[in-house]
Amino acid sequence: MAREFSAGPDDKGTRLDHFLPPRAPELSRSRLQALILSGHVTVDGRAVKPGAKLRGGERIVLTEPPPSPDTAHAEDIALDVLFEDDDIIVLNKPPGLVVHPAAGHATGTLVNALLHHCEGLSGIGGVERPGIVHRLDKETSGCLVAAKNDHAHQSLVRQFAGREVTKIYLALAAGKFAATSGEVNAPIGRHPVHRQRMAVLRAGKGREARTSWRVLAELPCGTLVECTLHTGRTHQIRVHLKHLGHPILGDDVYGKRGPFQRQMLHAWKLGFAHPRAGRRLDFTAPVPGDFLAAGVHGL
């Protein structure tokens, strides 16, 4: 699949790897960098480096390779399917399942399971991420939608980018909250020292991030909080709750592992418009067993 873009006069001096992200929001910046470096992006017919600066007036062609069986293999891994048709599949991802192959996780991922379960997946995500529209951390459980064709993929990406998708999570957080509800509107970016972490940064240094939260119950171990994502930054809820002084229980990156086997975060509800039919779809992933064991009931 190839897409063409034209650089206008206002793009003069813009780096290629800065020009592409807003025009291909379904692809991560690292994915676009890889496509540029592998020659899948050309400027006036020539492969260039990611930092190449545009003059204005160029024709940029972005080619996305289809899924390759040499990169991701089908594996018979059980899936908890909440909904499926010819365009999409909605899953209740269990904790511990990596979404797509990456360093250290070449097999045993959700993508490997989807390749076995589905006859086809969209190729927009590339050879390692066929069908993947959005991601959940390895330890996060709950609702996740994947696309079976490029039309569905593009529609869902537009909805995510346009903030038209409902994303509500359950989190078990440390301590007791002083208020019953609130909102964190604080930019998130790469931690200046610990580069594997994200952090709240001062204005102008990170990307906009907004999370609404509401206390649902106080439990012996901590507080059950409902979190609604208005943006979709990496580790957003984990970083914002830490910023409030209430890191997620079991989160050994932003808090402490303690007695929990994983970070206690669950993608509870997901809602969007069907990419072909246009009707609204809303899904709820059942509260997982470790949340129930921690005292979460009545949801």
Could you give the count of β-strands?
Answer: 15
Order of helices and strands: EHHEEEEEHEHEEEEEEHEEH
Structural class: alpha+beta
Give the rounded overall mean pLDDT: 91
Largest sheet properties: 9 strands, mixed
Gross morphology is globular
Please explain how this structure is put together.
It is a single chain. This protein has helices at residues 16-19, 29-37, 110-117, 150-161, 236-243, 289-293; strands at residues 2-6, 41-43, 46-47, 59-63, 81-84, 88-93, 141-147, 166-173, 181-185, 188-190, 198-200, 210-218, 223-229, 265-273, 280-284. The protein is an alpha+beta fold. The protein has three domains: 2-63, Roll (Structural Genomics Hypothetical 15.5 Kd Protein In mrcA-pckA Intergenic Region, Chain A); 65-162, Pseudouridine synthase (2-Layer Sandwich), CATH 3.30.2350; 168-267, Pseudouridine synthase, CATH 3.30.2350. A hairpin with a 2-residue loop joins strand 2 and strand 3 (46-47). The protein is globular. The model has no long low-confidence stretch (mean pLDDT 91).
